[in-house]
């Protein structure tokens, strides 16, 4: 809560620092045309700007008042108790108020007082008959004094934020913009002072020229007196405006302020003169005041010296801070480039094949695009167990629940599984596991596609393939292995070959973690889970499909064999010898001989099928060759 308020108050302080220099733009030179050949000038105040700046400044002052109220109720750490540990937090309101009154209250109060508003609306009208330069100087000094206190508040406030959060800005780009903002603030202040001093130099020239005239009246310099009848006569006679021009023949040296007077910035509309002065201030700070041509006026030279010194300090600070923040943006990218260069040198040194080198590069590229160099595992391990569990639950719980076997489990068991999941990345066309290799992890797919195929142990003319998509899982052999009643040090053998079809991002559950969960949580050994496991298991589905096909073929062959046996028994009474051909005519004897030959072949074929039927009465060898998947033990008794 305190950190949030400090950030808000820091923003309001910067806003107030930008508002105060606008008070220097209040005076302006008004050009009055007397006739076609003569014109006069006078000094006035920008009334609309006065109202706008007063409202904005008052809003900014409210934050300073709120800050005082917050500090009256903000606990602090007793310095005397910091001998051991972090110290004791003082929450007693009376002690908090007494400490604040002794330390920062006076500075905060001076920063919160609305001095510019009081000066503009009360003090300046009261001394309107005094010299203009005296009034402007007094007004400028009052604003500067309070401005110093407000600048001072920025330093401890920024330090408090850095101490609590590490940095002022939450991102590198915001940090760079924050430092650039201070540079623009300095340009804003420099331009405002330049404008006010330009007005003062113009008034100084008028005062000097007025002393050379016998009938000169300095009160006419104010636009409040231009409505008098004598002003017109004085304007037609005076030469102070023509003698105080910016032409080279003028004896008065304006120095660096001649640019603003020659460009008409002192009499231009507000936006025009503001951006002109802002650009002038930014130009001088960026060039360390090199193009400045000053006169012998002491205040002017002092201002030029301040610009040169301030520009060196601000420019060095800006470059240093900007470099720090921008380097923090590109730091991980540069580290990745260095690792990539080391990897290229390593592959070239070991003379890896070009295809293998391309696979390595593709994996490194996929990992960089997915993580941007962030070590997710180290971040999670640095968190407390409770927070780490909640983060893992948020990332993995919905994905784990998509697995039907896990969806039947209670939340506590799911939390234990989610807590042990780790991120997994692989590029396209990568073999994750091969049929016959040990399975050491179970994958839960987040993004991408996998091809899972099997030959059922190398059987000829057998191939089964499925596509795994987000929400599916691979490595189900680990479930059976983890539920075995006796500990087996050997990992299960993969029954399928799993290869990535696209870039794949997944969560992996290692074998030892799944075994630990199975041993610790007896609720995993539930009879209810047995049917779910078998129903959704790809291994069990493949075995069941092959078993049904083999059983159906065996049934078809048995039916065929039984029908042939019945046909053989039906025609076993008939014999060609019982019908000799000698008692018949010649053509009948020939026909009888042919029929005998055909009958003998049919009888031989029937005997062949009959013998086959007797062989198929036993179990089909194809069924015997089908290896049934390991039966997991879902009973909890074996784990007692």
Notes on the protein architecture:
The protein is built from 23 helices and twelve strands. The strands form four sheets. A four-stranded antiparallel β-sheet has the order 5-12-7-10. Strands 6-11-8-9 form a four-stranded antiparallel β-sheet, with no helix packed on it. The chain has helices at residues 2-19, 47-71, 93-102, 105-112, 115-126, 132-165, 172-211, 229-237, 240-243, 258-262, 270-287, 298-349, 354-371, 376-382, 385-401, 404-407, 411-419, 477-482, 511-520, 527-536, 538-570, 586-615, 621-625, and strands at 27-33, 39-45, 76-77, 89-90, 422-426, 431-433, 441-447, 450-454, 464-468, 473-474, 497-500, 504-510. A hairpin with a 5-residue loop joins strand 1 and strand 2. It has four domains: 1-168 and 212-244, no CATH class; 171-194 and 253-351, no CATH class; 376-536, Jelly Rolls; 547-625. The protein is an alpha+beta fold and 640 residues long.
